[in-house]
């Protein structure tokens, strides 16, 4: 056993002996759970769902309070990047309680089965950005056995 691993083991044993071990475990969990609280940017913003329907794939992103002018979409290969700025609904107002995120955001979403010639269509509807594209179809191919 090398010295670094032994030191880590000794520190862990000391925390357990002092009673600090479980406190440190739950504090780390609380920090992760509070991510996104108090209006800070959630790690996965905007939230999205991906659906398969007939011969198309659909992506639905939640963008409450935004309109199409606030959002920019770019496609690179099979990755869709969504950028924008979420603006507060009231100017010059002091928030008394704040859970929603405001500010710049960017998220890259992989688009499965996106064909090279598949156009991506997008529309904004009731705070949802809805995209769809035709899935790439793989034709049955005969494979020669050597």
The profile of the biggest β sheet is: 4 strands, antiparallel
Read across the widest sheet, the strand sequence of neighbours is 1-2-7-6
Class by helix and strand content? alpha+beta
Helix content: 10-25%
What's the total count of β strands? 7
Low-confidence stretches: 29-36
What is the H/E order?
HHEEEEEEE
- What number is the mean pLDDT? 82
Our estimate of the beta-strand percent is 25-35%
Spatial gap, N to C terminus:
51 Å
**Which overall shape is indicated by the principal axes computed on the Cα atoms?**
flat
Summarize the structure.
The chain is α+β, with helices and mostly antiparallel strands and 146 residues long. It is built from 2 helices and 7 strands. Strand 1 and strand 2 (56-62) form a beta hairpin.
Helices and strands, with pairings:
Blueprint: H1 3-18, H2 20-33, E1 48-53, E2 56-62, E3 71-76, E4 79-86, E5 103-110, E6 121-125, E7 128-134
Antiparallel strand pairs: 1-2, 2-7, 3-4, 4-5, 6-7
Task: Give the key terms.
flat; 32% strand; 4-stranded antiparallel beta sheet; 146 residues; 21% helix; 3-stranded antiparallel beta sheet; alpha+beta
Describe the 3D structure.
- There is one protein chain.
- The relative contact order is 0.17.
- Residues 29-36 have low confidence and may be disordered.
- The longest helix is centred in the first third of the chain and has 16 residues, at 3-18.
- The termini are far apart.
- The chain has a 4-stranded antiparallel β-sheet, with no helix packed on it. A 3-stranded antiparallel β-sheet has the order 3-4-5, with no helix packed on it.
- It has helices at residues 3-18, 20-33, and strands spanning 48-53, 56-62, 71-76, 79-86, 103-110, 121-125, 128-134.
- It is built from 2 helices and 7 strands; from the N terminus they run H-H-E-E-E-E-E-E-E.
- With 146 residues, it is α+β, with helices and mostly antiparallel strands.
- A hairpin with a 2-residue loop joins strand 3 and strand 4.
- The chain is 21% helix and 32% strand.
């Amino acid at each position: 056993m090398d010295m670094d691993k032994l030191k880590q083991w000794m520190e862990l044993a000391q925390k357990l002996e002092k009673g600090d071990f479980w406190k440190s475990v739950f504090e780390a969990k609380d920090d992760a759970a509070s991510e996104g609280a108090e209006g800070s940017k959630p790690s996965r913003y905007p939230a999205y769902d991906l659906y398969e329907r007939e011969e198309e794939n659909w992506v639905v992103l939640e963008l409450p309070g935004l309109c199409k002018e606030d959002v920019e979409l770019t496609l690179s290969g099979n990755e869709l990047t969504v950028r924008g700025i979420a603006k507060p609904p009231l100017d010059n107002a002091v928030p008394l309680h704040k859970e929603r995120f405001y500010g710049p955001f960017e998220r890259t979403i992989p688009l499965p089965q996106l064909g090279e010639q598949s156009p991506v269509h997008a529309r904004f509807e009731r705070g949802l950005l809805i995209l769809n594209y035709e899935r790439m179809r793989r034709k049955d191919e005969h494979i020669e056995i050597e």
